[in-house]
């Protein structure tokens, strides 16, 4: 049995303090099913205290020059980079992603984002436009409520919190209660860096209590939420009562269109990787692979062979490519979707419901083929290592199938002709498209169309989400 870490304090006005609530939330290691920590089950009055601290800190923080704010963020960036190994160990245990992958993805990417926002804080021109006698200026929106998910627990905190801080806002953060420990490690770093009291406040707890209190609070000027579409709709409803800005990054069911002239082996191989990243617990996962109908058997054979190489293993095993899912609830959810795919008549080529592990929330690589676009596994977000391969008649049919979704977060296109691929990418109703396996860009705007959300994160577009526009007539 492991020692249980006590992280039951919440962070308000620059200090770790007791919650007003007495409840506790257990944090479970998804590989061992052991309780590794307990955190506070926050209550609405904790949010009231945190918002009051953020409101009090806002005038002084927003009045600082961008260069001065940048200096604080640069200190955080420096300390976080020094502790990258520690952060990796924490998030790998918390989430279950193999450590060698977590170092690059779960820690490496957000460290780049912190550095980028430190740079933007110092270089962004907040008074950048004149229109006749009007000076157009951008000002921080105020107190920001940030509500973050478990699948990329550090990066999603960074994209919200550090963009808001760079813009001159103060923040009340509710981190995920499922994998919260890396957030605490980051807040320890922020505290050591000497961020002024009240600029960042953290209240742990459940969404229906702490999240709703943040969204409803009259002194919160904006809510930025990442999570399920269902929960995002609720945040919007609650926030509407006080007419505040809402930014949402929600679900996805992204299509990967492999055109008839593409290198099928390269396209399928890379597509499987983009479906299985983080054990499929990725909102941008390319879970629908669209291939020419006459090449469906060939594509399926390639996908099965590639998927079998995605080794299921413990997070500390360097050979592991798929760690456990984050929780027993998530494991049961993913297995139920595999059951549903079989029930509805999809052909199960590779079944991940059973693995060699009797302990831990593991699901192995799973591949379906001959999937009809109307099937549940082709329409709903599964959030596990489950690939659906769908045949199409021609290019127009592929685009139609790709766009026939409630979501529009990501997508992919493969073609031997880059211009053709880009033309198809432009027809896809989605916020991000990988062309021929293009690399992810941590500074590019990230967000979705339709029920995948509202607004953008990362880079300058992410910064501007937290700014108001003021016109000064002279």
UniProtKB/TrEMBL annotation:
EC number: 1.2.1.3
Catalytic activity: an aldehyde + NAD(+) + H2O = a carboxylate + NADH + 2 H(+)
Domain of life, source organism: Bacteria
Catalytic-site annotation from UniProt: 249
UniProt cross-references to CDD domains, sorted A to Z: ALDH_CddD_SSP0762 (cd07138)
Keywords per UniProt: Oxidoreductase
Family according to the record: Belongs to the aldehyde dehydrogenase family.
PANTHER family: ALDEHYDE DEHYDROGENASE, ALDEHYDE DEHYDROGENASE-RELATED
Protein name from the UniProt record: aldehyde dehydrogenase (NAD(+))
Organism: Rhodococcus gordoniae
């Amino acid at each position: 049995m492991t020692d249980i870490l006590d992280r039951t304090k919440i962070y308000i006005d620059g200090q770790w303090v007791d919650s007003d609530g007495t409840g506790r939330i257990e944090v479970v290691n998804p590989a061992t099913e052991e309780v590794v920590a307990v955190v506070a089950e926050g209550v609405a009055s904790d949010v009231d205290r945190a918002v009051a601290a953020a409101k009090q800190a806002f005038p002084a923080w927003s009045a600082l020059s961008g260069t001065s704010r940048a200096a604080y963020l640069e200190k955080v960036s420096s300390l976080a980079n020094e502790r990258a190994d520690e952060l990796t160990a924490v998030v790998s245990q918390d989430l279950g992603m193999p450590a060698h992958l977590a170092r690059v993805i779960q820690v490496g990417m957000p460290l780049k984002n912190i550095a980028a926002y430190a740079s933007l804080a110092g270089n962004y021109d907040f008074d950048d436009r004149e229109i006749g006698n009007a000076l157009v200026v951008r000002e921080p929106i105020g107190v920001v409520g940030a509500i973050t998910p478990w699948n990329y627990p550090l990066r999603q905190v960074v994209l919200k919190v550090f963009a808001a801080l760079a813009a001159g806002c103060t923040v009340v953060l509710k981190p995920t209660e499922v994998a919260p420990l890396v957030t605490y490690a980051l807040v320890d770093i922020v505290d050591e860096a000497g961020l002024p009291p009240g600029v960042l406040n953290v209240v742990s707890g459940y969404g229906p209590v702490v999240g709703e209190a943040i969204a409803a609070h009259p002194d919160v000027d904006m809510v930025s939420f990442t999570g399920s579409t269902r929960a995002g709709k609720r945040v919007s409803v609650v926030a509407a009562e006080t007419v505040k800005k809402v930014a949402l990054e929600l679900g996805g069911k992204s299509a990967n269109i492999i055109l008839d002239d593409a290198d099928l082996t390269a396209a399928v191989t890379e597509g499987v990787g983009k479906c299985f990243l983080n054990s499929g617990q990725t909102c941008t996962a390319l879970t629908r692979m669209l291939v020419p109908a006459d090449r469906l058997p060939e594509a399926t054979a390639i996908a099965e062979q590639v998927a079998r190489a995605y080794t299921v293993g413990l997070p500390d095993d360097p050979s592991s490519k798929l760690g456990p899912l984050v929780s027993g609830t998530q494991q049961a959810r993913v297995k139920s979707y595999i059951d549903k795919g079989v029930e509805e008549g999809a052909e199960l080529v590779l079944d991940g419901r059973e693995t060699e592990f009797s302990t831990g929330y593991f699901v192995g690589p799973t591949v379906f083929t001959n999937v009809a676009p109307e099937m549940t596994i082709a329409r709903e977000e599964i959030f596990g290592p489950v690939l659906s391969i769908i045949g199409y008649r021609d290019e127009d049919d592929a685009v139609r199938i790709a766009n026939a979704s409630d979501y529009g977060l990501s997508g992919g296109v493969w073609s031997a002709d880059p211009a053709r691929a880009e033309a198809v990418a432009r027809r896809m109703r989605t916020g991000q498209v990988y062309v021929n396996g293009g690399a992810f860009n941590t500074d590019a705007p990230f967000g979705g169309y339709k029920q995948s959300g509202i607004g953008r994160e990362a880079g300058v577009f992410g910064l501007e989400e937290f700014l108001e526009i003021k016109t000064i007539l002279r």
